[in-house]
UniProtKB/TrEMBL annotation:
InterPro entries: HARBI1_dom. Residues 3-72 form the DDE Tnp4 domain. The lineage of its organism: Eukaryota, Fungi, Dikarya, Basidiomycota, Pucciniomycotina. Signal peptide: none annotated. Its cofactor is a divalent metal cation. PANTHER family: DDE TNP4 DOMAIN-CONTAINING PROTEIN (PTHR48471:SF1). Keywords: Metal-binding. One of its GO terms (molecular function) is metal ion binding. Transmembrane segments: none annotated. The keyword Transmembrane helix does not apply. It comes from Puccinia striiformis f. sp. tritici PST-78. This is DDE Tnp4 domain-containing protein.
Length: 88
């Protein structure tokens, strides 16, 4: 029951798991988070990737993401490229 509760998202009233897959231009996987519980906030799941972007990514390199990927600080805005959501 505890595991089931961890995957429950109260905002959507359903069960989910979250995944982050980050690929290099050559197709190799450079960062992965698999099956994170749906009750965890997206920015918490991405915190290790944020650290890599800020501290281990060469100048001029970026992550290309979808509109749902959370950009939690202005420091990350220049590291994450995503299309604008409708209405933004």
């Amino acid at each position: 029951m505890k595991i089931q509760n961890a995957y429950y998202n109260g905002w959507t009233c359903s069960h989910y798991c979250s995944n982050i897959l980050t690929f290099a231009p050559d197709g190799s996987i450079i960062h992965v988070i698999l099956n994170a519980p749906g009750s965890w906030h997206d920015s918490n799941i991405a915190s290790q990737l944020y650290h890599k972007l800020l501290h281990n990514t060469p100048e001029g390199y970026r992550v290309i993401s979808d509109t749902a990927f959370p950009r939690v600080t202005k420091r990350l805005d220049y590291r994450i490229v995503a299309p604008s959501k409708c209405g933004d």
